[in-house]
Every structure is written in structure tokens, then in C-alpha cells.
């Protein structure tokens, strides 16, 4: 149980560190050889006129267009997941809708089929808030998840918060099953001993819990980016099942169309796991809605717009665990 409290403390400390590191992000990883901000604002690109542009700032209108507001993706993820051993393929639909100057709504639909033919799905909605300076995105999301596990089907609800900067990000997600949390799939006679009969019982367990991660874009400008994240997770289930561990993620966005992911994890229940993912994205819809505002540089603006257009990072396949116990039947003696 102590591990459960360590994760929020770790994330809170990381948030303080992230705030101090944002300034260095602009200096290190978000620069262009030729900065379009040195040009005069192109008001014909804007719906309104930029006002109050400082000497070291520019109008967002002079920057290149950002990512599309929607993506249809096809992915394949290799075996070695946390709480699911098999590889699976996915089809995703993600859409970002502007709701006003600072607000954006997201719709995230995902369908998965594992190599053994079993299905899973996620349906999520959320809100993202872009601050006036276009330097930070605050997000809140809610999900319904369903998985056809080995021996039963179960549903869960999830919720998450996210803090996204051009280079840094901080995420926290929670998960709670809302239907059956266990299923007995085998019960067989084991042995007689005295006046007792022993039966072996095996169960599959749904798990509730949370995960969190701190990430950093080593490079994030335009269509190419390299991202890493370090995080932890904690899950619990019936019969005192507790799973706690850490993970390391890496992602490479090659273009708007192709991305690669990798993940390595270790915990007390599933031990070492590692898997990779290849994804093909088909952009659709208009570019992310951009309003006229003063920004520090175009590369940072594009980086934050790509944060608005990215999927929520979470455990999309609900994990399950196995439990084995012995039942005893007393036989009265005559």
C-alpha cells in the first residue's frame, strides 16, 4: 500500500521541476535556423489583427500551419504488455474540436483485436485548455474501457489529468472496474487428506489502480519529434493482489503519417516486459484552430499545437492477473 502513496508524491515533485525547466526547453530544443518571427506579421493569415506584440515576440499568424484536427490511425503493438501477454492491432479515431479562444474538446475512439482474436475498446472524451501565452496545455479526460479477457468480459471507467508544455509533460490516470472483478475458470479435485477434500481453484482478476509519467521531448518542432517518458503504476485486485512497478517509454514521430513507440517495464507481478509499436496516421479535417496571439517563437507554437492534437497516453488494454487458491471440504466421520 505504501507504493500507492509514493506515486503522487513523485508526480508532485516532478511538476515543480517541470515548471523550472520550461524556460530551458525553449533555449535548447525548440529553435529554427530561420525564424519566421523576424518577418512582418501576415495579417491575411489571421481572422483578427495581432496587438501588443513585444520586441522579442511575433504574431502567431506568421508561423507555418499546425497539425490536422483529426487522425485515423492503424497500429500494431508487439507482445509483452502489462497484464496482457499477446500482441494486438488497433484502429483509432481521434478528433480535436476548438470550443473557443482557449478551449479544445477531444474525442478518442480505439478498437483493438489481439492475436488470439479477443477484442477490446476504448471511448473517451476530454477538454484541453491552452493558456493565453500558448505555452501550456491543461487537460482533463474520461474514458470507458471494455476488454474481452481470457475467461470473462469486463468494463471499467477511467479518468486522467495532463499538463503539457512544448517539451515537458506530466500525466496521471486512474482506472476502476465497474462490473465483475473476478471469474473462476477452473476448479478441480486435488487430493484427499484425512477427512478433508482439497480442490484447486483458479481465477482471473480485473485490476483497479493508477499510473503516472513525466515525459520530455528531446526534439519537437514541426512534423518530427523524439519523446521519452519515465513513469510508474500501481494496481490492486481481489485476494490482496498488488502490482507496483515502473516503466520507460520512447516515441519517434517521423512525419505526420508514421510513428514508432517502445516501452520497457518491470513490476512484482508481471516482471520484465518490453514491446514496440508501429503506427500509420491518416490526417483529416482542417488544421488546429489558431487565434491571433503574441508568441515567443514559431517552433514553440507548433510544438504546443502538436500537444493539442496528440492522443491521451494511458493504459488502453485493461490489465488482468491470475489467482490460484485451494478450497477445503470437510467430510464428517461416522
Which properties best describe this structure?
disordered N terminus; 334 residues; twelve-stranded antiparallel β-barrel; 17 strands; three-stranded antiparallel beta sheet; 55% strand; Porin
Describe what this molecule looks like in 3D.
With 334 residues, this protein is mainly β. The chain has a single domain, classed as Inverse autotransporter, beta-domain (Porin, Beta Barrel). Helices cover 11% and strands 55% of the residues. It has helices at residues 2-28, 298-308, and strands at residues 58-59, 68-77, 88-98, 103-114, 119-130, 137-148, 153-164, 168-177, 182-193, 196-206, 208-221, 224-237, 241-253, 258-267, 273-287, 294-295, 320-330. The strands form 3 sheets. A 12-stranded antiparallel beta barrel has the order 2-3-4-5-6-7-8-11-12-13-14-15. A hairpin with a 6-residue loop joins strand 5 and strand 6. The longest helix has 27 residues, at 2-28. The protein starts with a helix and ends with a strand. 37% of the residues are buried.
Could you give the topology of this structure?
Layout: H1 2-28, E1 58-59, E2 68-77, E3 88-98, E4 103-114, E5 119-130, E6 137-148, E7 153-164, E8 168-177, E9 182-193, E10 196-206, E11 208-221, E12 224-237, E13 241-253, E14 258-267, E15 273-287, E16 294-295, H2 298-308, E17 320-330
Antiparallel strand pairs: 1-16, 2-3, 2-15, 3-4, 4-5, 5-6, 6-7, 7-8, 8-11, 9-10, 10-17, 11-12, 12-13, 13-14, 14-15
